[in-house]
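REVIEWER CHECKLIST
Item 1: Sequence provided? yes
Item 2: Single chain? yes
Item 3: Sequence as submitted:
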Amino acid sequence: MKIRKYLIPVLSVLALASCNYEKINTNIYGITEEEMKQGGLLYGAPFMDMQKLVIPIGSPTESTGPGNDLANTDVMSAGNYIGYWGMNNNWNFNTEATWNFTDARMNYAYQNFYSKLFRAWNDIYKYTKDSKEPTDKEVQAVANVVKVMGWLRATDVFGPIVYTNAGNGDIAPKLDSQETVYKAMLAELKEASQVLAGTTTKVLSSYDVIYDGNAQNWTRLANSLMLRLAVRVHFKDQELAKEYVSFALNQSNGGVIETVAQEAKIQNTAKLPLMNSLIPIVEDYGECRLGATIWAYMQGYSDPRLAANFVAGSYGFESLPPTNDKALSTAVKTGAAKPKVDASSPLFWLRASEVSFLKAEAALYKLTAGDPKTWYEEGVAKSFEENGVSGVDNYLRSDVKPKDIERTLKYNRTYSCKLSTNNVSPKWDNSDSDEVKLQKIITQKYLALYPNAVEAWTEYRRTGYPYLLKPAYEKAHVSIGAEEDAVTPERFRFAPTEYGTNPNMSEVPTLLGGTDQGATKLWWVRDGRPKQPK
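Item 4: Structure as written out by the authors:
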C-alpha cells in the first residue's frame, strides 16, 4: 500500500506531462480502477484532452498542430466567411478558404470537430454510463457539458452527426438529424445542470482548466449553453425553445453566466501550459489579418473594440476581404492589421455578453418575459467591459451605419462592396419592426462574439444577419453548388472516406434534407431568411 500511495501522485504527474495523455495500463502497477478514480487519474487525463479539443488549443510545444487545426475549423473557414479575418493566401484556390471543400480538408475538419473529441469523451463515458456513484454522475455531467460545447460546433458545421448512438460500441453507428441532435443535447444539458446544481464539492478540480472544479460555474455554463441552443431553434420549434429557455433562466436551476468572472474560456494556466493557437497563423505564417467585414462595422460605428482586438500594421487598420483571391504577400504581412493576440490570450467558449443577446432575442420573440432593449444594451455594455474599453453610452446613442468598401482596400483594389444599404446603427428604436430589432441584436452579437468564429457564422446562416461583405473570389460559389449571390457556404460536406467507413452514411442526404454539399441549408435556418441587398 505504501508503493501505491507514492505511485498515484507520480502517475498523475506523468499523465499531465504527456502531450497525448496515453492510457495507462494499471495492471503493471497493481492499482485498481477504484483507486484511480479516487485520485482523479482515471478521468482527469481525457477530461483535459476534451477541454483542449472544443476549440483547438495545445501546449507551446504543440503550436503548429493546434494552430493548423484552428485554421481549418475557425480561421480559414468560419472566421474568413464572416469577415473576422482576411486570409493572406489563396492556397491555389484549393482549400475551404475559397470554398473548395476537398476530400482531405473535409476529412481533417471532421476529425477536428468530432472524432478527436469522441475518443476523449468515450474514455470517460465507458466508466460512468452505468455507474450509480454520485461522484461518477458529477464527472459525467461536466464531461457531457464539454461534449455538447464541442459537438454543437460539429453539428452546426456538418449537420447530421452520430450523437444518440455515440459510445454504444457500434462499429457502424447510425447518424442523427440535426433536429434530433439538438433535442438530445438540450435534454443532456438539463440533466447535467440538475446534477451539478446540487453538487457541493469540486469536480475534477486538478484537471479542470475552465472552472477549477467549481460545480456552480459548470451549472451556469450548462444553462447558458442550453439558452444558446433553445434560442437557436425557436424559428423551427417555438414550444421546445420556450421549454428550455424557461428552465435555463429560472434562477432556482442555478442561473446563467452573468459576469466576466463566470465566462467560459480556455488559456494558459499553471495546471496545463497552453498557447493560443492563433499565434502560428498570425505570427509564424503571416496569413491571418484583419477582416474587411468587421473593420467596416467597427470603423463605421467608431467602435473602440477595433483597437482592442487588432494591431494596426504599417498602413493602419488595413484589412482583407472574405475569400481573398490574392497569393501570399510579404507586403500584407507587415502592412495589414492583425489580431491582437499573445501566447496567453484565451479562446472563448461562452461569454456574458452573448447571454445578454440571447435574452434579448428570447424576449423579442416572447420566449421569456423582459424588455429586448434592456438586454440588448446590456449585451453591448458587457462586451465593452469584456474588451476593456469605455464609451458605451455614446456608442448606444450613435445612429451611424457601417462603412462601404469602394475600391479602397490597398491589397485588393479591384474589390468593392456596399454594406450600408438597409443596414442598422447601434441605437435602439422601440418604433422599429421586430425584424429590424433582430438585425440590431445579431449585428451587435456578431461584434461581441469575436473571436468565436463558428458561432458567428452559425448566427449569420440562421438569421441572415449581420449583412456581410461578399466574397472576393467571384467563382467561390461554383465549388459548393450555390447560387451566384451566395455570401457564405451553408455547411461543410462529408469526405467520401466517411461514406466508406460507415454504411449508415448513406442516410446523410435524407437526414440533411438535401444533397451533401456546401450549399445545402441546415435545419435551424429560418424560413424566408432575408437576402442582403446588393
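Item 5: Key structural point noted by reviewer: Confidence is low (pLDDT under 50) at residues 1-30.
Item 6: Recommendation: ____
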